[in-house]
Write a structure and sequence with these properties.
The complex is a heterodimer of chains A (287) and B (268).
Chain A lengths: L15 H30 L3 H6 L1 H32 L4 H11 L6 H11 L6 H10 L12 H26 L3 H9 L4 H12 L1 H17 L2 H6 L12 H11 L3 H31 L3
Helix pairs in contact in A: 1-13, 3-4, 3-7, 3-10, 7-10, 10-13, 12-13
Chain B lengths: L1 H27 L3 H5 L10 H10 L1 H32 L5 H11 L8 H10 L6 H5 L6 H13 L2 H9 L4 H12 L1 H17 L2 H6 L8 H14 L3 H21 L1 H11 L4
Helix pairs in contact in B: 1-14, 3-14, 4-8, 4-11, 9-10, 11-15, 13-14
Chain lengths: 287, 268
Amino acid sequence: MLSQRATPRPPSRVPWWTIGLFLAPTLVFLLVFTYLPIGYALLEGWPHLKEVLRSPDTLRAARITLLYTFVVVPSTVLLGLVSALLVEGTTRVKLFSRAVLFHPVILPMVAFASMWLYFLNPTSGPLTLGLSALLGRRVSPLTDVDLTLYTVAAVAVLKDFGLYMLFFLAGLQSIPRQLYEAALVDGAGAWVRFTRITLPLLGPTLFFVGVFATMTALRNVDHIWILTPQGGVTGEAEVFLFHIYMVGFFYYNLPKASALSILFFFLFTLIALISIPRIEKGIYYAD
Amino acid sequence: MRRLLAWGLPLLVSVPLLLPALWVLVAAVTPTYAINLNQFFREWTWENFHLALASANFPLLYKNTVMYTVGLLLAQLPAVILAAYALARFRFRLQRAIFYLILFQLFLPPVALIVPNFRILTALGLADTLTGVALPYIGSATGVFLLRQGFRQIPIELEEAAQLDGAGPLQTLWYVALPLVKPYIAAFSLVSLVYHWNEFLWPLVVINSPQKRLLSVGFASFTRSAESGAEWGLIAAGAVLVAAPLVVAFVCFQRFFIESFAHTGLRG
């Protein structure tokens, strides 16, 4: 990880058109399918932007998204970190546990969500019945309007945290062993070693995983489609992308959906502007 | 006591996560009426699979999904390899600008622009085609940065030696650099295949004709109709059929899966 290539190489003698040909396929697809759609959304959606901004539906979707993200992101990151700490090492039990914790990541979300559909079924689901018996009153995590959003959030958390566990494991491995040995010599306990060495040195990983988890939370609505047709009984799980989907492809109001897409695009741009300066160095100079 | 914790705690956390998957496997071979009576492990049947195969044309769904995922990967690889190599090894004007142009796409997955992307596809006459589903993913920023990192790990001297021997950039890439980044290409390929095999919302929007459906979409619409009849055995069998190829591959190549997915977290 030394910057062995910090000195610039002599300018290559590759002619400009060769470089152009190397870059062309990626750039063409990027322009047509990322940048052209942005332009299209701006053109089509702009006249409807005011109307969309004033609509209570938009505000509601934004509020739901905010709450959903605030539930999902810290839980996935925390669960990922804790499980990474638990399975760090190479014993058989830890490797097995690692594979088990990771396996939901490779399952199709539609399949993963439909098995929860059984457990959470409002009349016969074992989880519904168990929870109701435990609390002594009828509770349905999936269809009680004040619980739906938390339930779909929990399904997303269980599906995704295994991936973040891997990122944290990689982060843990990059911490030099000597630091822990030195701390042990100084008589530092496990908690002190964790808060004074592990956590600070995991800082960049934490930031990266946080951004990654936020973007995943914003863009993944497959489980909502399966668990709550139409985003919940009264739309209480209608996060922003789901709202765009409903407006565009259920009510078929494409201009309005384009206007909503502009807002969504601004949100992702904001995340990019916040995180690029902090992760850029890692990407640009990573060796 | 410490040793007991060292293997007890990981198992205590991980094994419960396995239960839903095990339930699906059991339910898939249990008659639906028995599931609804909560009677497991008494009766076994392949009936659920027969019903699932009959009601959702799984062979066709498999064929479409394999064509989509493999076809997309074959289109992604050349595009991504060439761009990654150019960014890693060439020096040119606008390099920073192009770098950021690609980097920004990491933050704009095609599904975030689902409506305008669909409009562009329709304008190009590619709505309701699997090609249309694949196109927005061909210029993959994840792939470009992953492979760029791979190319930068190679000692530059090897490529310089090839250049001295008269090899052009394309030959240097093909004969010298590419064999050395095989692990990166394998990791990217695996993640791309898994991601697109599982993909749902974008193909749901693009594809209209039932005969062009992908596995996840076919399964989801079939779940919706089976759910209202509480046909859990059927749904479980469908879930097994959708996930089986990936799960079998995962069980066989666990390490490769875990290492590949760990790679997708570009160093931050």
